[in-house]
């Protein structure tokens, strides 16, 4: 599907590649980007696993604060217990609008033995050889000389999310080198708690509301669209988790002496799951999709995203996809009901028993029209409509004697969705900036399927929010051999420079 | 349900209790039983966990062999690697039929900390106090004086299965004390491998076919009917295990980015389970019950078993039972399809993913009309009829690209069922013997739901087999605080004596 788009993308990729190795070399924005690469490597050398070491995060915060100051920003640490965040600022003219850029300096835990290099915190520059294998290059290849955009830097947080921090400084440098000033006031918040531990962002935002106040927020996190074209994301789904347990006998029962007689809760749970969804993955719970409607502009936006769905299915290794929406993007704009895990007894050591209970954990990905609390209430009602009595935890003896079908539902915690209208001023501004820089419209994703902890920013600042991911989609983020494609580093600086040059 | 039967049982219990404390005291069979109690305690003092110590089993075997010889049997060890079995014999007259009695001397593993006594291998005599709590009594209460049938001996294998070994010797003693000989030739096989490790019975039987040859086999194992009335069991179900795995994507997929798009195999597995059975637990797989028919005699036998189904449900803690048969006994005479465990991802640590696979392990309890291989073939056909392609283990890339629904089925090992006709000579003989001893028909169970490893005996000896369980149903076998009710010890000796006195 989308054959014309694929062709167009190939042509674009060829143009970009040509541009990067010749025209970009004479581009002051490119030069500014290249000049920051040694600092970028230094930043990657600082271990940054919040859960592992607060002292590591303190070292990152001190380094980042000093770096912003070296690059012309004012900067300060924001108190957050023993893992401070960093605030930086450039320009404060009343006549200009203010944009707050968000990124984070902490990273996911590492298992060094899984990496194809000595340490996740010793960055390695690599290029693909003729056979497609990654081969290390000397790091000094990054100091002067032509840089192949296909080279990659491998290290924890190379992409997620230290690259955007340095890209911000490089973009500011480009204005300075050209003797110009950005068209917006720039604020920067660098989070220390995005990847682990209790999220502290809402508290930090609340305590620093005035300092962080902005007309718009741009979050620099996550990977770009798989086409690697400049990408704007206008929202994300929320998430609500819960656990459904179906109860059988008081304890495991001998499957010989009681098989065909004592009901097996695994079959009961299976019946509920089967009632929840049809064979195409559409939720059958009444009201679950209520309020979800798409106008013509939104439907067109779904269709305009250059997804290669055939390639997606091939990568995943499945011959067909669920049929909730007409295409991948539309599917992500409906709430989902997903089983994240399921269990009865111990499948690694099955004994010949009728298990006493069977459980499934779920996540509901929500959209603004379908709040998690409403969806969970609909699930509860539906389970009751199937004849189940919902107990508060494990059933009492009286409940066991009275109700043939017993279950419980626990949980309901989650995070809220975010949706910025496609025609909101922040979207018009960013789209215009990127169109100006690249000569064509960016990929505009109405809503990404995953969840980003924007709630603290939304509630605390009440500013419109947009996500602008800058790193390659195949960056292995959260896993071993995380990497940044250097072409994306240059493109990211170019995109940020374009936004900074565009009056809001 | 069964109110009249319950009343009749209460009356019978009262009569038995009265008999045990007065009439039995003057009964030579009762006296012979009482005289063996000190030896019974000695036998319980020998640790007997096959998997834990072969030397322990050797000590048990030597003790059991010597004990049979003390009680007038000839006896020998049967080679079985380092865990010998014991063979004993009493009488060898050509004019008499020969019955082989089977019991086992090995026991289930113990967790001493879970026991309410110093050691599972230091037997403790206990009586219930007014509050219903068990209180220890001096062991010498068992040496002379009246013995309350409600007292119990607590120790590993007190019930399962050392008591029947001593009961056999006591029953033989009663003949000797009366100057009589049994009406049958008696052979005894004491297994060393029933509770754990690789079953070696088939090999031992094959190597000793001539020695063990008998006209009938009576297995003394398992608990009596819950009514505690003398019980004969005419068969048991077989068992066949398998594992069904439904495949989703190649690996776990992010539930945000792919929820509503990449199919979740947990829902696929649930749909299959729901198709397997209706809400009343009846299997919907075509042909699964084919060949199962009950004649009027068998239906009457089901109804005659004095089950208290209301009490069974109360103990289990469920308000309703599956509706495969018209009653509990009939349900156990149909093959069952039971989920023994089920899993997708890790429910203890659920992550927000679409799990890459979902599995359920099953056991099919089989009856002679429904062999395990046939049932498993029907399951495979049924899964395919639901649109699934069954791969041989995990699917290949080509299978992933071709088939929307992918699953695999592995396993199929199991044990055969056994069914001796209710009117077979062995059943008539044992029924007549027990009727004579107790003045009413025993509980006759056409087929128990669980599986007993009789196959080695059946194939090796080609003799009709009957099970005569002798111990109380609430004996905590296989668990902590295993115990034998002393009334059952006396009743067991009486039942064995009755069989031995009855010509086959």
From TrEMBL, chains A, B:
<dbReference type="GO" id="GO:0006508">
    <property type="term" value="P:proteolysis"/>
</dbReference>
<dbReference type="Pfam" id="PF01546">
    <property type="entry name" value="Peptidase_M20"/>
</dbReference>
<dbReference type="Pfam" id="PF07687">
    <property type="entry name" value="M20_dimer"/>
</dbReference>
<dbReference type="GO" id="GO:0046872">
    <property type="term" value="F:metal ion binding"/>
</dbReference>
<feature type="signal peptide">
    <location>
        <begin position="1"/>
        <end position="25"/>
    </location>
</feature>
<keyword id="KW-0645">Protease</keyword>
<dbReference type="InterPro" id="IPR002933">
    <property type="entry name" value="Peptidase_M20"/>
</dbReference>
<dbReference type="InterPro" id="IPR051458">
    <property type="entry name" value="Cyt/Met_Dipeptidase"/>
</dbReference>
<dbReference type="InterPro" id="IPR011650">
    <property type="entry name" value="Peptidase_M20_dimer"/>
</dbReference>
<keyword id="KW-0479">Metal-binding</keyword>
<keyword id="KW-0732">Signal</keyword>
<keyword id="KW-0378">Hydrolase</keyword>
<feature type="domain" description="Peptidase M20 dimerisation">
    <location>
        <begin position="235"/>
        <end position="386"/>
    </location>
</feature>
<dbReference type="GO" id="GO:0008233">
    <property type="term" value="F:peptidase activity"/>
</dbReference>
<protein>
    <submittedName>
        <fullName>M20/M25/M40 family metallo-hydrolase</fullName>
    </submittedName>
</protein>
